[in-house]
Amino acid sequence: IKMSQEKEYEKLPHYKDLQIEITKLWKLSSTILPVVIGALGMIKKGAEKYIKQLPGNSNLCELQKITLMGTTHILQKALST
């Protein structure tokens, strides 16, 4: 959990530049939602409040499933070479 919190704070400045660019280019307001999902689907406690702010019907289980499928794909490619 400590590692995901560190990753969250590490990534915020990177996305701040993107947020500023979106505001300038399209004159839209944007919000940074710090959701870090580990390769094995680990999510920090409290991340659900950010996920609820996402547009559409995003839910925690669906995001974890997508992450695990991506991890599986990467492992299959790495192990088949």
Could you list some keywords that capture this structure?
81 residues; mainly alpha; globular
Summarize the structure in words.
With 81 residues, the protein is mostly helical. It has one domain. The protein contains three helices and no strands.
What amount of the residues lies in strands?
under 5%
**Helical stretch tally:** 3
> How many domain regions?
1
Number of strands: 0
| Secondary structure: helix percent | 55-70%
Order of helices and strands: HHH
What's the quick description here?
This protein is about 60% helix and about 0% strand. The protein contains three helices and no strands.
Would you spell out the secondary-structure blueprint of this structure?
Layout: H1 2-26, H2 48-51, H3 60-80
